[in-house]
Design goal:
Layout (H helix, E strand, L loop, with lengths): L2 H11 L3 H12 L2 H6 L2 H5 L5 H10 L2 H13 L3 E4 L7 H4 L7 E6 L8 E5 L6 H15 L4 E4 L5 H11 L4 E4 L13 H9 L1 E5 L11 H11 L3 E4 L7 H11 L3 E4 L10 H8 L3 E2 L3 H5 L4 H5 L9 H9 L5 E2 H8 L3 H13 L3 E4 L3 E4 L3
Parallel strand pairs: 3-4, 3-7, 4-5, 5-6, 7-8, 8-9
Antiparallel strand pairs: 1-2, 2-6, 10-12, 11-12
Helix pairs in contact: 8-9, 8-16, 11-12, 16-18
Amino acid sequence: MTHFKALIGLNMFCGIGSTRLNQLLRYFGKPENILNAPVNELAQIPGIGLKIAEKISSLKEKDIDEEFDLAEKHKLKIITIGDEDYPDSLKQIPDPPIVLYVKGALKSQDKSGIAIVGSRRASLYGLSCAEKFAYDLSGRGITIVSGLARGIDTLAHQGALKSGGRTIAVIGSGFNYLYPAENKKLAEEISCNGAVISEFPINAKPLAQNFPRRNRLISGLSLGVLVVEAAKNSGALITADCALEQGRDVFALPGKIDSPNSLGTNELIKQGAKLVSSAEDILEEFDIAAAAIPASGPSLSGSESQVYGLISSQPLLMDEIVEKTGIGITEISGLLLKLQMHKLVRQLPGKQFIKVKA
Protein backbone atom coordinates (compact mmCIF):
# COMPACT_ATOMS: atom_id res chain seq x y z
CA MET A 1 0.00 0.00 0.00
CA THR A 2 1.31 3.46 -0.91
CA HIS A 3 2.00 6.28 1.55
CA PHE A 4 -0.90 8.28 0.02
CA LYS A 5 -3.40 5.43 0.28
CA ALA A 6 -2.38 4.68 3.84
CA LEU A 7 -3.10 8.26 4.93
CA ILE A 8 -6.51 8.17 3.26
CA GLY A 9 -7.30 4.91 5.06
CA LEU A 10 -6.20 6.18 8.46
CA ASN A 11 -8.39 9.24 8.02
CA MET A 12 -11.36 7.20 6.75
CA PHE A 13 -11.81 4.65 9.46
CA CYS A 14 -9.69 5.63 12.41
CA GLY A 15 -10.25 9.35 12.85
CA ILE A 16 -6.90 9.51 14.54
CA GLY A 17 -6.15 13.18 13.85
CA SER A 18 -2.72 14.69 13.22
CA THR A 19 -1.61 14.53 16.88
CA ARG A 20 -2.13 10.76 17.13
CA LEU A 21 -0.75 10.29 13.62
CA ASN A 22 2.50 12.01 14.61
CA GLN A 23 2.77 9.77 17.67
CA LEU A 24 2.31 6.71 15.48
CA LEU A 25 4.77 7.97 12.87
CA ARG A 26 7.43 8.58 15.50
CA TYR A 27 7.18 4.91 16.40
CA PHE A 28 6.45 3.22 13.05
CA GLY A 29 8.11 5.66 10.62
CA LYS A 30 5.62 5.47 7.72
CA PRO A 31 1.79 5.42 7.42
CA GLU A 32 1.93 2.08 5.60
CA ASN A 33 3.89 0.57 8.49
CA ILE A 34 1.11 1.65 10.86
CA LEU A 35 -1.45 -0.33 8.86
CA ASN A 36 0.74 -3.45 8.91
CA ALA A 37 1.44 -3.31 12.65
CA PRO A 38 -0.04 -5.91 15.05
CA VAL A 39 -2.98 -4.82 17.23
CA ASN A 40 -1.14 -5.29 20.54
CA GLU A 41 1.77 -3.12 19.36
CA LEU A 42 -0.55 -0.37 18.11
CA ALA A 43 -2.54 -0.38 21.36
CA GLN A 44 0.58 0.40 23.39
CA ILE A 45 1.11 3.76 21.67
CA PRO A 46 -0.04 6.65 23.94
CA GLY A 47 -3.49 7.93 22.93
CA ILE A 48 -4.32 4.92 20.73
CA GLY A 49 -5.70 2.11 22.89
CA LEU A 50 -7.30 -1.16 21.86
CA LYS A 51 -10.41 0.25 20.14
CA ILE A 52 -8.49 2.44 17.65
CA ALA A 53 -5.83 -0.26 17.22
CA GLU A 54 -8.50 -2.74 16.14
CA LYS A 55 -9.93 -0.20 13.65
CA ILE A 56 -6.48 0.30 12.12
CA SER A 57 -5.85 -3.42 11.92
CA SER A 58 -9.20 -4.11 10.23
CA LEU A 59 -8.62 -1.61 7.39
CA LYS A 60 -8.68 -3.18 3.90
CA GLU A 61 -7.18 -1.73 0.73
CA LYS A 62 -10.43 -2.39 -1.18
CA ASP A 63 -12.21 0.01 1.21
CA ILE A 64 -9.76 2.74 0.25
CA ASP A 65 -10.22 1.93 -3.44
CA GLU A 66 -13.98 2.40 -2.99
CA GLU A 67 -13.29 5.83 -1.46
CA PHE A 68 -11.28 6.78 -4.53
CA ASP A 69 -14.14 5.65 -6.76
CA LEU A 70 -16.53 7.88 -4.81
CA ALA A 71 -14.09 10.79 -5.07
CA GLU A 72 -14.01 10.36 -8.84
CA LYS A 73 -17.82 10.23 -8.95
CA HIS A 74 -18.07 13.54 -7.04
CA LYS A 75 -15.15 15.07 -9.00
CA LEU A 76 -13.12 15.55 -5.83
CA LYS A 77 -9.42 16.06 -5.44
CA ILE A 78 -7.88 14.42 -2.36
CA ILE A 79 -4.97 16.26 -0.74
CA THR A 80 -2.92 14.90 2.15
CA ILE A 81 -1.00 16.94 4.70
CA GLY A 82 2.36 16.32 3.06
CA ASP A 83 1.28 17.37 -0.44
CA GLU A 84 2.64 20.50 -2.07
CA ASP A 85 -0.82 22.00 -2.66
CA TYR A 86 -1.97 21.50 0.94
CA PRO A 87 -2.74 25.02 2.30
CA ASP A 88 0.17 26.45 4.29
CA SER A 89 -2.25 28.27 6.59
CA LEU A 90 -3.69 24.94 7.81
CA LYS A 91 -0.25 23.46 8.48
CA GLN A 92 0.22 26.18 11.10
CA ILE A 93 -2.85 25.36 13.21
CA PRO A 94 -3.03 22.87 16.09
CA ASP A 95 -4.25 19.47 14.88
CA PRO A 96 -4.35 20.19 11.11
CA PRO A 97 -6.44 17.73 9.08
CA ILE A 98 -4.56 14.75 7.64
CA VAL A 99 -6.68 14.74 4.49
CA LEU A 100 -8.73 17.31 2.59
CA TYR A 101 -11.38 16.48 0.03
CA VAL A 102 -11.67 19.40 -2.41
CA LYS A 103 -14.34 20.14 -4.99
CA GLY A 104 -13.16 23.08 -7.06
CA ALA A 105 -9.68 24.52 -6.65
CA LEU A 106 -7.60 26.09 -3.91
CA LYS A 107 -5.40 28.90 -5.24
CA SER A 108 -2.52 30.96 -3.91
CA GLN A 109 -4.75 34.05 -3.75
CA ASP A 110 -6.87 32.27 -1.13
CA LYS A 111 -4.14 33.11 1.39
CA SER A 112 -5.95 36.45 1.58
CA GLY A 113 -9.09 35.01 3.10
CA ILE A 114 -11.58 36.41 5.58
CA ALA A 115 -14.12 34.16 7.30
CA ILE A 116 -17.67 35.42 7.73
CA VAL A 117 -19.78 33.43 10.18
CA GLY A 118 -22.90 33.89 12.28
CA SER A 119 -26.34 32.70 13.23
CA ARG A 120 -28.33 30.17 11.23
CA ARG A 121 -31.48 32.00 12.36
CA ALA A 122 -30.26 35.43 11.38
CA SER A 123 -32.30 38.62 11.21
CA LEU A 124 -32.79 40.58 8.00
CA TYR A 125 -30.17 43.01 9.30
CA GLY A 126 -27.65 40.22 9.82
CA LEU A 127 -28.30 38.62 6.45
CA SER A 128 -27.97 41.87 4.52
CA CYS A 129 -24.77 42.80 6.38
CA ALA A 130 -23.23 39.38 5.75
CA GLU A 131 -23.92 39.69 2.04
CA LYS A 132 -22.68 43.29 1.89
CA PHE A 133 -19.42 42.60 3.74
CA ALA A 134 -18.77 39.53 1.59
CA TYR A 135 -19.54 41.45 -1.58
CA ASP A 136 -17.32 44.39 -0.67
CA LEU A 137 -14.40 42.27 0.56
CA SER A 138 -14.59 39.87 -2.35
CA GLY A 139 -14.63 42.78 -4.77
CA ARG A 140 -11.27 43.80 -3.35
CA GLY A 141 -9.66 40.42 -3.99
CA ILE A 142 -10.40 38.79 -0.63
CA THR A 143 -11.52 35.14 -0.61
CA ILE A 144 -14.59 34.68 1.59
CA VAL A 145 -14.51 31.59 3.82
CA SER A 146 -17.60 30.21 5.55
CA GLY A 147 -19.39 26.99 6.46
CA LEU A 148 -22.28 26.62 3.94
CA ALA A 149 -24.78 26.64 6.82
CA ARG A 150 -28.17 28.31 6.64
CA GLY A 151 -28.38 32.01 7.47
CA ILE A 152 -25.22 34.11 7.65
CA ASP A 153 -22.96 31.52 5.98
CA THR A 154 -25.25 31.21 2.96
CA LEU A 155 -25.46 34.98 2.44
CA ALA A 156 -21.68 35.34 2.85
CA HIS A 157 -21.06 32.83 0.05
CA GLN A 158 -23.73 34.44 -2.13
CA GLY A 159 -22.29 37.91 -1.61
CA ALA A 160 -18.87 36.75 -2.79
CA LEU A 161 -20.36 35.03 -5.84
CA LYS A 162 -22.37 38.14 -6.75
CA SER A 163 -19.18 40.20 -6.84
CA GLY A 164 -17.51 37.66 -9.13
CA GLY A 165 -14.99 36.80 -6.43
CA ARG A 166 -13.80 33.61 -4.78
CA THR A 167 -15.32 31.80 -1.83
CA ILE A 168 -14.51 28.62 0.10
CA ALA A 169 -17.09 26.52 1.94
CA VAL A 170 -15.90 24.17 4.68
CA ILE A 171 -18.47 21.47 5.36
CA GLY A 172 -19.01 19.31 8.44
CA SER A 173 -19.83 16.08 6.61
CA GLY A 174 -18.73 13.96 3.70
CA PHE A 175 -19.75 14.89 0.16
CA ASN A 176 -22.33 12.08 0.01
CA TYR A 177 -24.25 13.83 2.80
CA LEU A 178 -23.79 17.50 1.97
CA TYR A 179 -25.59 19.60 4.58
CA PRO A 180 -27.92 21.42 4.45
CA ALA A 181 -29.46 19.71 1.43
CA GLU A 182 -31.01 22.94 0.13
CA ASN A 183 -27.51 24.36 -0.39
CA LYS A 184 -26.41 21.71 -2.89
CA LYS A 185 -26.89 24.12 -5.81
CA LEU A 186 -24.95 26.80 -3.93
CA ALA A 187 -22.15 24.30 -3.30
CA GLU A 188 -21.93 23.65 -7.04
CA GLU A 189 -21.68 27.39 -7.73
CA ILE A 190 -18.98 27.74 -5.09
CA SER A 191 -16.96 24.88 -6.59
CA CYS A 192 -16.88 26.81 -9.89
CA ASN A 193 -15.66 30.02 -8.18
CA GLY A 194 -13.55 28.66 -5.35
CA ALA A 195 -13.80 25.39 -3.46
CA VAL A 196 -15.92 23.25 -1.18
CA ILE A 197 -13.72 21.29 1.21
CA SER A 198 -14.09 18.66 3.91
CA GLU A 199 -11.74 16.68 6.10
CA PHE A 200 -14.39 14.00 6.57
CA PRO A 201 -14.62 10.79 4.49
CA ILE A 202 -17.13 10.92 1.66
CA ASN A 203 -19.75 8.83 3.50
CA ALA A 204 -19.47 10.72 6.80
CA LYS A 205 -22.86 11.98 7.96
CA PRO A 206 -23.42 15.56 9.29
CA LEU A 207 -23.17 14.61 12.95
CA ALA A 208 -23.39 17.37 15.56
CA GLN A 209 -19.83 16.79 16.79
CA ASN A 210 -18.41 17.39 13.30
CA PHE A 211 -19.29 21.08 13.16
CA PRO A 212 -17.21 22.45 16.04
CA ARG A 213 -14.29 20.51 14.54
CA ARG A 214 -15.06 21.98 11.11
CA ASN A 215 -14.91 25.50 12.58
CA ARG A 216 -11.17 25.35 13.24
CA LEU A 217 -10.64 24.98 9.48
CA ILE A 218 -12.83 28.00 8.68
CA SER A 219 -10.66 30.18 10.90
CA GLY A 220 -7.46 28.36 9.91
CA LEU A 221 -7.94 29.20 6.24
CA SER A 222 -8.45 32.89 7.06
CA LEU A 223 -6.48 35.95 8.08
CA GLY A 224 -9.34 36.90 10.37
CA VAL A 225 -12.91 36.02 11.30
CA LEU A 226 -15.89 38.38 11.12
CA VAL A 227 -18.79 37.36 13.37
CA VAL A 228 -21.88 39.06 11.96
CA GLU A 229 -24.60 37.88 14.31
CA ALA A 230 -24.36 35.33 17.12
CA ALA A 231 -26.45 34.33 20.10
CA LYS A 232 -24.85 33.68 23.47
CA ASN A 233 -24.03 30.01 22.75
CA SER A 234 -23.72 30.24 18.97
CA GLY A 235 -21.39 27.94 17.06
CA ALA A 236 -19.95 31.09 15.46
CA LEU A 237 -18.34 31.88 18.82
CA ILE A 238 -16.49 28.55 18.60
CA THR A 239 -15.02 29.76 15.33
CA ALA A 240 -13.98 33.01 17.04
CA ASP A 241 -12.32 30.99 19.83
CA CYS A 242 -10.49 28.90 17.23
CA ALA A 243 -9.32 32.09 15.52
CA LEU A 244 -7.86 33.43 18.78
CA GLU A 245 -6.09 30.13 19.48
CA GLN A 246 -4.62 30.23 15.98
CA GLY A 247 -3.49 33.86 16.28
CA ARG A 248 -6.08 35.18 13.82
CA ASP A 249 -7.89 38.51 14.15
CA VAL A 250 -11.51 38.57 15.31
CA PHE A 251 -13.99 41.20 14.11
CA ALA A 252 -17.57 41.66 15.23
CA LEU A 253 -20.57 43.57 13.95
CA PRO A 254 -22.42 45.38 16.75
CA GLY A 255 -26.12 44.71 17.20
CA LYS A 256 -29.10 45.84 19.22
CA ILE A 257 -28.56 45.30 22.94
CA ASP A 258 -31.98 43.68 23.33
CA SER A 259 -31.56 41.26 20.42
CA PRO A 260 -30.71 37.64 21.40
CA ASN A 261 -28.79 37.29 18.13
CA SER A 262 -26.46 40.14 19.15
CA LEU A 263 -25.54 38.93 22.62
CA GLY A 264 -22.57 36.96 21.33
CA THR A 265 -21.19 39.63 19.00
CA ASN A 266 -21.60 42.42 21.55
CA GLU A 267 -19.81 40.28 24.13
CA LEU A 268 -16.95 39.68 21.68
CA ILE A 269 -16.56 43.44 21.29
CA LYS A 270 -16.43 43.83 25.09
CA GLN A 271 -13.68 41.20 25.14
CA GLY A 272 -11.56 43.04 22.59
CA ALA A 273 -12.79 42.00 19.15
CA LYS A 274 -12.60 44.86 16.68
CA LEU A 275 -15.95 46.56 16.09
CA VAL A 276 -16.55 46.98 12.35
CA SER A 277 -19.09 48.88 10.29
CA SER A 278 -17.55 48.54 6.80
CA ALA A 279 -15.18 46.34 4.80
CA GLU A 280 -12.53 49.04 5.10
CA ASP A 281 -12.42 48.49 8.88
CA ILE A 282 -11.22 44.95 8.17
CA LEU A 283 -8.95 45.74 5.23
CA GLU A 284 -7.01 48.37 7.13
CA GLU A 285 -5.80 45.67 9.54
CA PHE A 286 -3.84 43.91 6.79
CA ASP A 287 -1.08 44.95 4.40
CA ILE A 288 -3.08 43.56 1.48
CA ALA A 289 -5.71 46.28 1.76
CA ALA A 290 -4.20 48.98 -0.44
CA ALA A 291 -3.08 46.60 -3.17
CA ALA A 292 -6.40 44.80 -3.26
CA ILE A 293 -8.62 47.83 -3.97
CA PRO A 294 -9.48 47.88 -7.68
CA ALA A 295 -7.97 50.71 -9.67
CA SER A 296 -10.86 51.13 -12.08
CA GLY A 297 -14.63 51.19 -12.13
CA PRO A 298 -17.12 53.56 -10.51
CA SER A 299 -16.67 54.37 -6.84
CA LEU A 300 -19.81 53.38 -4.93
CA SER A 301 -20.97 54.58 -1.55
CA GLY A 302 -21.77 52.07 1.17
CA SER A 303 -25.50 52.20 0.44
CA GLU A 304 -24.94 51.94 -3.30
CA SER A 305 -22.71 48.88 -2.78
CA GLN A 306 -25.33 47.32 -0.51
CA VAL A 307 -28.08 47.71 -3.12
CA TYR A 308 -25.83 46.65 -6.01
CA GLY A 309 -24.80 43.54 -4.07
CA LEU A 310 -28.42 42.38 -3.89
CA ILE A 311 -29.07 42.66 -7.62
CA SER A 312 -28.18 39.76 -9.90
CA SER A 313 -29.06 38.46 -13.36
CA GLN A 314 -32.49 37.51 -11.98
CA PRO A 315 -35.03 40.37 -11.88
CA LEU A 316 -35.57 41.83 -8.40
CA LEU A 317 -38.55 44.00 -7.47
CA MET A 318 -37.93 47.39 -5.90
CA ASP A 319 -40.14 46.38 -2.97
CA GLU A 320 -37.90 43.35 -2.38
CA ILE A 321 -34.83 45.61 -2.35
CA VAL A 322 -36.51 47.85 0.22
CA GLU A 323 -37.38 44.85 2.37
CA LYS A 324 -33.90 43.29 2.21
CA THR A 325 -31.97 46.50 2.88
CA GLY A 326 -34.29 48.18 5.34
CA ILE A 327 -33.75 51.44 3.42
CA GLY A 328 -36.76 53.65 2.65
CA ILE A 329 -38.30 53.55 -0.82
CA THR A 330 -37.43 57.17 -1.61
CA GLU A 331 -33.73 56.61 -0.88
CA ILE A 332 -33.76 53.28 -2.73
CA SER A 333 -35.18 55.02 -5.82
CA GLY A 334 -32.30 57.49 -5.75
CA LEU A 335 -29.69 54.76 -5.27
CA LEU A 336 -31.10 52.70 -8.14
CA LEU A 337 -31.07 55.76 -10.38
CA LYS A 338 -27.37 56.33 -9.62
CA LEU A 339 -26.59 52.67 -10.36
CA GLN A 340 -28.43 52.99 -13.67
CA MET A 341 -26.42 56.11 -14.49
CA HIS A 342 -23.24 54.12 -13.78
CA LYS A 343 -24.64 51.49 -16.21
CA LEU A 344 -24.40 48.85 -13.48
CA VAL A 345 -28.09 47.93 -13.33
CA ARG A 346 -31.01 48.08 -15.74
CA GLN A 347 -34.70 48.61 -15.01
CA LEU A 348 -37.27 46.23 -16.44
CA PRO A 349 -41.06 46.74 -16.64
CA GLY A 350 -42.86 46.48 -13.30
CA LYS A 351 -40.06 48.21 -11.35
CA GLN A 352 -37.79 45.19 -11.58
CA PHE A 353 -34.00 45.51 -11.72
CA ILE A 354 -31.21 43.29 -13.04
CA LYS A 355 -27.43 43.58 -13.08
CA VAL A 356 -25.84 44.73 -16.36
CA LYS A 357 -23.38 42.16 -17.66
CA ALA A 358 -19.82 43.41 -17.93
